[in-house]
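User: Predict the structure for this protein chain, please.
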Amino acid sequence: MWNKLDRLGIVPSGPADDAMFLRRVYLDTIGTLPRRTRRERSSPIRIPSARSQLIDRRLARDEYADFF
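Assistant: Here is the predicted structure, written as structure tokens:
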């Protein structure tokens, strides 16, 4: 993958901060933005296990099947 980006002259994005990661997970899995209350109370999700758990919880929701 990195070779292809290099060949195309595309510089990969840096790591996403917590807010961007949360937004991407919601949009990519269930097609909606996180509610404001979820964003405000979210704990840091910088560690990989916390991010994995967040993704797994979104994939287990009924909205995931509906979205896809």
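The CA atoms of residues 41 and 58 lie 17 Å apart.
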